[in-house]
């Protein structure tokens, strides 16, 4: 959904924008006046958000050419990308000795290569313009390990590492890279796991701690980081429900 309303905020791209944290990010950044490019495999849920100054594209983050093409289309309408939020991710929990290796590959493709693809699509131009912000939605599982999370933690540790590494590389170009690492969040993420016992245990853990983060809380943290002066980079935000111990 687009309109001709004048804008003062830069174009923001959000991956995985069809549900959960991605949809919350879309609503939050739109309300703050940012024109949006929303990317996800499912087009209809993004369109159903009915946000102004927004272009929705059915794009798989493993397809770097599709990301670049979508960015080009959005920039033609809204100007250069000022913020790119790598939010798309998948969590497939399991014990490594039992888990199907295809689940590891899927997480690596989306959680790591998808993030790198998003960065690659916009970073050269951000460096050239000497401004820009890339926010990578990681996880507290990128800082510590959890039972049944081995491969997932591996992908999220990678997101933490690559974000900080690239931040150092582009700091003198006034480009910011930010990691946001939520604890447990109420989203569809757990539904991707195929092991029913693990899913039941995870739900019991969430209930035991009295509830988990709302997706909106994560979106608010991202907007807070984005709204700092370009000369200020909040390198990492770690947030979790107060009762979440690990």
From TrEMBL:
Entry's transmembrane regions: none
UniProt keyword annotations, A-Z: Oxidoreductase
Record-linked PROSITE patterns: ADH_SHORT
InterPro entries according to UniProt: KR_dom, NAD(P)-bd_dom_sf, Sc_DH/Rdtase_CS, SDR_fam
The keyword Oxidoreductase belongs to this UniProt entry's keyword annotation: yes
Domain Ketoreductase: 10-169
Top-level lineage group: Bacteria
Entry's family note: Belongs to the short-chain dehydrogenases/reductases (SDR) family.
Protein name stated in the entry: SDR family oxidoreductase
């Amino acid at each position: 959904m687009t309109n001709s309303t004048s804008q003062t905020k830069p174009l923001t791209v959000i991956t995985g924008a069809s549900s959960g944290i991605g949809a919350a990010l879309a609503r939050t950044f739109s309300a703050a006046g940012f024109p949006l490019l929303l990317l996800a495999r499912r087009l209809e849920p993004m369109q159903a958000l009915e946000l102004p100054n927004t272009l929705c594209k059915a794009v798989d983050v493993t397809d770097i050419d599709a990301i670049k093409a979508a960015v080009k289309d959005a920039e033609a309408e809204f100007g250069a990308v000022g913020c790119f939020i790598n939010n798309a991710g998948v969590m497939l929990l399991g014990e490594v000795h039992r888990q199907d290796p295809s689940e590891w590959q899927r997480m690596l493709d989306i959680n790591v290569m998808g993030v790198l693809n998003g960065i690659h699509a916009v970073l050269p131009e951000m460096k050239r313009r000497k401004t820009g912000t890339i926010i990578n939605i990681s996880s507290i599982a990128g800082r510590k390990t959890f039972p049944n999370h081995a491969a997932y933690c591996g992908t999220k540790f990678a997101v933490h590492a690559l974000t900080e590494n690239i931040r150092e590389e582009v700091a003198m170009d006034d480009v910011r890279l930010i990691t946001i690492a939520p604890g447990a969040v109420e989203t569809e993420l757990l539904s991707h796991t195929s092991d029913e016992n693990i899913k039941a245990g995870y739900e019991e853990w969430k209930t035991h701690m009295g509830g988990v983060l709302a997706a909106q809380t994560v979106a608010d943290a991202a907007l807070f980081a984005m709204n700092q002066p370009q000369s200020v980079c909040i390198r990492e935000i770690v947030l979790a429900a107060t009762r979440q111990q690990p």
